[in-house]
Hints:
This is PH domain-containing protein. By secondary structure, the protein is α+β, with helices and mostly antiparallel strands. 42% of the residues lie in helices and 15% in strands.
Amino acid sequence: MAERGDKKFGFLLSLTGNLSLQEKKEKKGRLYSTKKGQQKYWFWFDEKECVLKYYKSKELYIQSLHTPLGKISLADAKVTPAAAYEHASNEDTSNTFIILTQSGQYFALTSDSAETCHDWIRKLQAKRTEWIKKDSDIRKTLPRAISPRNYDRVSGLVGGDKSFGSSLGGGELLRTTGSGSVSVRKIFIDQLEGKLSPFSEYQDPFESDRPLQRTETASSSASSTNFYQTETDGIREGEGEREEEEPAGKSLCNSDDSGGSGRGGSGQSSFITSTYELTDQDRATLELKAELSETRSERDQLKKQLMQLQEKLFKKDEKIKSLQDEVDKLKETIHKINSPNSDYALENENLRVVIESLQKSLKSLDGEVELHKLKLKERNSELDLQNE
């Protein structure tokens, strides 16, 4: 992480900075390095995509004209200190944290100090929680019929489950809360007691860290169409009317469920185990949303490039303005010199008068010199005559 004086900067505002990266692959309980040693890159967290991107250098990141060397998605990943995962290692990992992805990728990132490492983990956790909450709010605005409740997510970035890496198999993600782990891939339905209400509010597994309160069972082969048809036909009917509809093939509950309990006998209620399947229209809607997100990302990139070009033009305009000021000063000086009323002209006129007076004085002195010469000649001639 870069430093300026005694204050860190970069990650505190936009999660950017230098980190050493070592990528590994998990195979049969062991970690194999895909690159020799650790290499230093400039990292940047993209809040719009919840992705940690890395570049070869800070200069290439600032230019924003090069695509990143790679990126690490944090939407389905877990971030934890290396000491919590590599507990059997004898090396000092206080300044290292790891990222475990759903596909089994293992990224070890090393910072300059343990304090910087903790700051990265804390900031990544806050940003990812904010992203999940925003994504959850978007899903809440959709109709329940097309809300992707089986969205693959894990709730926490920093968790106490050290066996998280080994549980990333077959695309199954587990969220460990309370006394047990609950899958977030299935839809939870209330017990069939009284009026059936499939649209009742269920606890969202991404909105809270509290243990889920509803019991989860394996999904059955009953179709979602039958489920919603049952709700439409019998939502306001009594318990007896729903029992009459079950022989017609519209009920999703059997007298004997997977746990072996029935409506009568043991006294336990049955569970609805149907999952909702998205229609072609729903899939098209989600694809359009994904394309819209990509378009917005490209638009933001173009805006960034436009701001850089505007900054360059602004600097050039400032340089042109400074040159124009210098030219104006030179023109003003020339005008003063050529002006007859200027100080320069007055000084030149005074010098001219002085020079003329000096020239007159020289001429008068020349006349006197000639006169003295004539007198000297006459005096010499007189002396010559006396000597003879």
